[in-house]
Every structure is written in C-alpha cells, then in structure tokens.
Amino acid sequence: MNLLSYGLLGLLAREESSGYDLMLRIQPFWQAKHSQIYPLLARMEGKELLASRWIQQSDKPDKKMYTITDKGIHMLQQWSQEALAAPVTRDELSLRLFCLWLTDKSSANRMLEERKRHFIQKIQHLEDILNNIPAENLHFGSKNFGDYILVQKGLLNAKAGLEWCQMVLHMLLAGDVSVDTNPFALKPQS
C-alpha cells in the first residue's frame, strides 16, 4: 500500500465513488492521474479492501462505483495510527526562483503575479468551502471537523503565500533587498 492507496481508501470511507470522481477529489491532497488510480483500485479490490458495482447509464458508458469494505476501514484505521513521514515539497516556482538571476525582471514579475492570482483564487475558494461547513458538526470525530481544520490550514498557507508574493514583488519594484523593503526583516529594537 502506498500513500495514494490510503488516500483513496479515506475518500471511499466517506462515500461511494467512481474512479474518475476519486481522481478529482484526491487532487487537493495529492496530484494523481487516471493511470495511477485505476490500477490501485483494482489491486485494492483484489485484496478485498474495497468492493465495486456497475451502474448502467443510458447516455454514457457504464460506471464502476467503489465502496470501502470493513477490511479496508481496518487498514485505514491502522495507517492513521502510524508515524508520519516528513513532508515533501515540490514547487516549480521555487525552482525557477532559485535560477532567478538568469531571467529578466519582467519575467520574474510575471511569475510572481501569476502565483499571486493563484493564491487569491485559492483563498476565495477555501473561504467558500469554510462558509458551507456546518458549525454544529465541528467536533473531534466528525468528518466536518477534519474538513474544517484542513481548510483552515489551506487558508493559512495561501494567505502566507500571497503575503510572500507581495513582499517579493515589492522588492523587485524597489530594485534591492533592504530592511525597508523586506517586511519580514528583523527590526532593531530601540
């Protein structure tokens, strides 16, 4: 079992889904493609961690729906109690900024403005999700509690990313990095 397998089981623990729906629902947590998901679903079905049924559709091809089994729930519960691995960071912008000295200021501004727009859209999307989480279900043990804390984490990360983009854009506009252009620089105490 790999991390994507556990992620798929976690989604199926919440509701029955097709492979395509699972691919869409896993994206906020893990970038996965059809070519990864469908073989994992077949293997997990073979291990009896999930079951499937076919739904006939008149206007589209028949759809295979998956549900988690008791054995799959048990496997997911065991995994949730294991020690966490260190987080992995993969960010193309970070790699490009590492090579920033090789580009022009216009390209640097464009990259940061694109990322800034991404964070603004993400903040709006996450705030919309947050507004639709029922407050009465925000207690440990409810599915909504997990949703709430993950949306809050996403919001904090997106807001920090937006603030960072604004700081770097301000530095590019100023043309240098000084205490006055870096809002995160330590200020001398008087």
From TrEMBL:
Q: Where is the Transcription regulator PadR N-terminal domain?
A: 8-77
The keyword DNA-binding appears for this protein = yes
InterPro entries in the record, alphabetically? Tscrpt_reg_PadR_C, Tscrpt_reg_PadR_N, WH-like_DNA-bd_sf, WH_DNA-bd_sf
MF (Gene Ontology): DNA binding
Residue ranges of every copy of the Transcription regulator PadR C-terminal domain listed in the record: 89-172
Q: Which domain of life is it from?
A: Bacteria
UniProt keyword annotations, A-Z? DNA-binding
Give the matching PANTHER family. TRANSCRIPTIONAL REGULATOR YQJI, TRANSCRIPTIONAL REGULATORY PROTEIN
The protein's name? DNA-binding PadR family transcriptional regulator
